[in-house]
Amino acid sequence: MPGMVLFGRRWAIASDDLVFPGVFELFVRVLWWMGILTLYLVHRGKLDCPGGVLLSSYLIMLIILLAVIIGTVSAIVCVSMKGTICNPGPRKSMSKLLYVRLALFLPEMVWASLGAAWIEDGVQCDRTVGNGIIATVAVSWITVASTAVIIVIVFDPLGGKMAPYPPAGPHHPDSHESSQLLNGLKTAATSVWETRIKFLCCCIGKDDRTRVAFSSTAELFSTYFSDTDLVPSDIAAGLALLHQQQDNIRNNQEPDQVVSHSPESSQEADLDAELENCHHYMQFAAAAYGWPLYIYRNPFTGLCRIGGDCCRSRTTDYDLVGGDQLTCHFGSILQTTGLQYRDFIHVSFHDKVYELPFLVALDHRKESVVVAVRGTMSLQDILTDLSAESEPLDLECEVQDCWAHKGISQAARYVYQRLINDGILSQAFSIAPEYRLVIVGHSLGAGAAALLTIMLRTPYPQVRCYAFSPPRGLLSKSLCEYSKTFIVSLVLGKDVIPRLSVTNLEDLKRRILRVIAHCNKPKYKILLRGCWYELFGGHPEDLPTELDGGDLTQPLLGERSLLAHGSPAYSFSSDSPLESPSKYPPLYPPGRIIHLEEVGTSGRFSCYPAARYSVKWSHESEFSKILIGPKMLTDHMPDILMRALDSVVSDRAACVSCPTQGGSSVDVA
């Protein structure tokens, strides 16, 4: 539900968010109360010492005060359990209860201070009583400090501007006052987000590119969240509901309801060859991450294998650029790729906003010059990822409407300039002129590799690209179609990144609003059920998440309550700020897509891929929605992807004669 309004401002917490913290506080308070009561009843005969009357009065008042607090917190928990996310009516007394609860902190602080003063004066009484008083004072101040921390966490810097809302209801969605207020909120929100980002990224410098990235990221966040009135727990509940809804739809779906985009026969014929190429070149994409990924993949032996390289200086005729720990990186690269020291032309771990690390090597097994671009591994890389506006590409080809992700485009341009202007590719092909050029990368590196391949298409017509788990929001539709002849993308399972784009995020937000508005269960039950389902699985609940009938042209009353008044979404307009055709046009993943999908069930806590996969060529439309699940993040990890590729390639090699099942998909055990 919308955030609570207390003291004339909105807070980033709803009235139904107090069940779990209230139960925890009740548990602590009840134990505390029972301990103090037991202490008083057992040792009250020993309070006839000097100052004992004060201590006796202190304990009696503390017992009474704790009882009042326990009663108030119990009432808060009971009220917080009532209603639903979009029906806060049964919780209308919550603000009064919170005022009472906050007022009780004053006597609690006073009593804790008095207890500390009496202990400081050295009251001579039974040692057990003294220790009990000390523990009581300590717990009191810990509780007060914890409450202060929670208040800081739920403080909304824009709360004073967002409460109360303007009188712009359904009859005046486009009023001039509402429009002015919304623009003011967006400006203030952008400033707040920029301040937060600068604070989080305070250690990465303040050059012009970094400042541009700060502004770009802040504008994206403020635009995305400015037209909704959701608190973080609402989003968590919505994601839990969406996961169960998606699983329920999939379980009830008949086989003939699945729309399959069958590839051409030529595509199916080279599936095995491309899988083998992906398996081979994924080693280079992983090597570009350097020693951190290698140690992560080999926690017990990795440091021993590359430790000598970290301590030993090495010389070479080739140019190695960037970083004091380059030798550690280089040792892990040698171990990952299996190449020799002399096979590397250039290794750079220079890392700034819009400037990615990369390596260039001679792959004699495949007779190729390999350029591997590193994926996201630093705050600078995250800022590059989040610079999600679109910018036009100046390409020497006949493709019209050439647009791409701004941050990744600039990162690809940086690598392009290094390869061409510094003569790195010329040096490589002077050594092996008959080799072909192959560009690879994972995640952010996959997006940069795809754009770099498009940029190098004119001087190197035979260039190929293998993009592992690339972001969806990368290329315009025309560039996506153009890239299918020379780029192959590989996606594992429910990986969120190949489904992640500004357009898909906007769609996810709308689905969260819709599923929350249609659910008739209280939030605490949704979260409990969601946690259980994520951890232990089970059958998804058949939750009421859709209305019968046709498409809606107006949001439901419950859904409207989750939108900011005066925002474009409030009137259910399709003209969302995130769907601006000039700034955030729909973008698509690069090239043809190979999808590795798990077949059968696997444990929720499984650290390794399932033993069976379905391998097929997939259409980009199959990645047009973000799927919620416990593996939406782990399926993106490069080590998980490498294990899956190892399993698939080895199984297909051992079962070359296995018949193809299900059209374009092939199941491998």
Automatic annotation (TrEMBL):
The chain crosses the membrane at residues 18-43, 55-77, 98-119, 131-155. Its EC number is 3.1.1.116. It catalyses: a 1,2-diacyl-sn-glycerol + H2O = a 2-acylglycerol + a fatty acid + H(+); 1,2,3-(4Z,7Z,10Z,13Z,16Z,19Z-docosahexaenoyl)-glycerol + H2O = 1,2-di-(4Z,7Z,10Z,13Z,16Z,19Z-docosahexaenoyl)-glycerol + (4Z,7Z,10Z,13Z,16Z,19Z)-docosahexaenoate + H(+); 1,2,3-tri-(5Z,8Z,11Z,14Z-eicosatetraenoyl)-glycerol + H2O = 1,2-di-(5Z,8Z,11Z,14Z-eicosatetraenoyl)-glycerol + (5Z,8Z,11Z,14Z)-eicosatetraenoate + H(+); a triacylglycerol + H2O = a diacylglycerol + a fatty acid + H(+). GO terms for cellular component: cytoplasm; plasma membrane. This is Diacylglycerol lipase-beta. GO terms for biological process: arachidonate metabolic process; diacylglycerol catabolic process; neurogenesis. One of its GO terms (molecular function) is triacylglycerol lipase activity. Its cofactor is Ca(2+). Residues 370-503 form the Fungal lipase-type domain. It comes from Eschrichtius robustus (California gray whale). The keyword DNA-binding does not apply. Lipase that catalyzes the hydrolysis of arachidonic acid (AA)-esterified diacylglycerols (DAGs) to produce the principal endocannabinoid, 2-arachidonoylglycerol (2-AG) which can be further cleaved by downstream enzymes to release arachidonic acid (AA) for cyclooxygenase (COX)-mediated eicosanoid production. Preferentially hydrolyzes DAGs at the sn-1 position in a calcium-dependent manner and has negligible activity against other lipids including monoacylglycerols and phospholipids. It comes from the Eukaryota. Keywords: Calcium, Cell membrane, Hydrolase, Lipid degradation, Lipid metabolism, Membrane, Metal-binding, Phosphoprotein, Transmembrane, Transmembrane helix. It is found in: Cell membrane.
